[in-house]
Write a structure and sequence with these properties.
By secondary structure, this protein is an alpha/beta fold. It has a six-stranded mixed beta sheet with strand order 6-7-8-3-9-10, sandwiched between helices. A four-stranded antiparallel beta sheet has the order 2-1-4-5, with helices on one face. It is 38% helix and 23% strand.
Length: 267
Amino acid sequence: MPDTAPPPALEASGLRKAFGDFVAVDDVSLTLAPGASLAVVGESGSGKTTAARMIAGLEVPTAGTIRWNGQGLPRRRVRAAERGRRARDVQMVFQDPYASLDRHQRVDDCIREVLALHTDLRGSELTRRTAELLDQVGLGSRQARSLPRALSGGQRQRVAIARAVAVQPRLLVLDEAVAALDVSVQAQIITLLQDLREQSDISYLFITHDLGIVQHICEDIAVMHRGRIVEQGPTLSVLEQPHDPYTRTLIDSVPRQGWKPRRRATA
């Protein structure tokens, strides 16, 4: 009987990225199943963002292979048309939504532009789908008519997420997507991301330094240190019984009194 299981949303093998003599990422391999969520954690300079940018197609690996949904990613810079075709496979949400949004473009026009570029929707159907996406991330008509500067940080990140999921990607790379937000707003964005996963088979690659967040959204975790993965496995297992000294150092540095992985994960 033929194997009908869907291919992994992401297969990255032996990734390496060198900038001159400096090796930012060295022999990193990650696999992410459809609908799953994987956290890549580490301090600043650990190589996690460089790895994410390679996976998203924004950096060309020095070595290694990347496959999205069974399709290989070229080991070269691709033309704009090819990037557009690949936008349905992977999208990226950055730490600073204000920097990634057009400051002179209204929120609804931002979403409409993406839909017009990547779908056949036009006219009233385009307007309806734009409103649906904004409603899905908790934004209404008032925010839709606003410029980014009129929104809060959390609202801007909601816009960035709506724009990213508009093309229905299979993989969403979130690079410190809640790091700049207040704790209460972080919780709202995490809940939003959980809801979006329940509504589709989207997979998350969650890049962060905050171990207190990953257990709420990611089943698996990979710990990076000096460009390499030093430990990986199920999130709760790694957080409760870390094997690598660097992982233990990260856990000890969590700035929350009385923080315990399992209690927070089941709260």
